[in-house]
Design a protein that fits this description.
mainly alpha, Na+/H+ antiporter like fold, 14 helices, 0% strand, globular
């Protein structure tokens, strides 16, 4: 089965494009698939050994500073606020839970990847509501309400598999070892989640694009530039700590579904098209990386 692994992502991308109506109707399954991916990933590492690394700190600094500077640069320069929100979300969106799956296939350190998957998501859950309260388009969302919405969204998909895996490692280590032997299957679960996410993304662009093609063209072009830049910067950062693959995936691979949700909930809904394009670009790049690695 593993010999067909390099064809799984391209197949998911093509099917997501062709079957976007069906994928959009089945998108409610994605949180359950992400839960499965994280649970399989957490059982394969010693959770007690996870800790904040220096690279993690620099990644958090980058997300905080870059998102603020990009938004201010565009708005103060007279640019469209929707474009500014999209660029901000390119940096502010947390790392994808599935980034560990791809990175470990490419040779990254599993502990580094898993650690920031948890730390980075919790960090964004703490700082993002401050951004949304200051510049968001929904004044009815107070700071407290924004925190509740963010924590409920992240906690349901991140905290539950983490604590379940931790409990298994401490209370039922044999069962944990059995599950961990199948951690490689998380790649195929991710491919299914990707199929549904890409389909939902394409469906979203089709539904929200009418009458806004000029702005969407800018969002698409800048999304491509942001994706390429973040993978490149992340690789440079990772080189400093001996793990360029982890650096690239942790900075470049975003939880696009979370980014789309944050844009739709707290910002202009049209800005979510930026992260929709980003989802396509990052997964095309991941498919190329895996094929090249093979």
């Amino acid at each position: 089965m593993h010999k067909y692994r390099q064809y799984v992502l391209p197949a998911a991308l093509v099917l997501g494009l062709l079957l976007h109506n069906v994928c959009a109707s089945l998108s409610f399954l994605v949180p359950f698939l992400i839960f499965t991916i994280l649970f399989l990933t957490f059982t394969a590492v010693d959770i007690k050994q996870l800790h904040i690394e220096k690279m993690h700190v620099w990644l958090m600094v980058y997300q905080l500073v870059a998102s603020a500077l990009l938004f201010l640069a565009v708005t103060w320069g007279g640019g469209h606020k929707i474009v500014a929100e999209g660029l901000m979300m390119a940096s502010l969106t947390p790392v994808a839970a599935s980034s560990t799956v791809v990175a470990c296939m490419l040779g990254a350190n599993r502990q580094t990847m898993t650690g920031y998957s948890i730390i980075g998501n919790l960090f964004i859950a703490l700082v993002a509501p401050l951004f949304f309260t200051l510049i968001g388009d929904h004044p009815e969302h107070s700071l407290g309400m924004s925190y509740l919405l963010m924590m409920s969204k992240i906690g349901s998909t991140l905290a539950l598999p983490f604590f379940l895996a931790l409990a298994m490692q401490r209370l039922w280590p044999k069962a944990n070892a059995t599950v961990a032997r199948y951690s490689g299957m998380s790649y195929y679960v991710w491919a299914l989640a990707l199929l549904l996410t890409i389909g939902q993304t394409i469906h979203y662009i089709f539904n929200h694009g009418a009458g806004h093609w000029h702005i969407i063209a800018w969002l698409g072009a800048l999304s491509l530039a942001s994706c390429a830049l973040q993978f490149w910067l992340g690789r440079k950062l990772g080189h400093r700590y001996g793990d360029p693959i982890s650096g690239a995936q942790l900075m470049g691979q975003k939880n696009s579904a979370m980014g789309i949700w944050m844009c739709s909930t707290f910002l202009s809904p049209l800005s979510s098209v930026f992260m929709a394009f980003y989802s396509v670009y990052q997964n095309l790049f991941n498919a190329w990386q895996i094929a090249k690695h093979k």
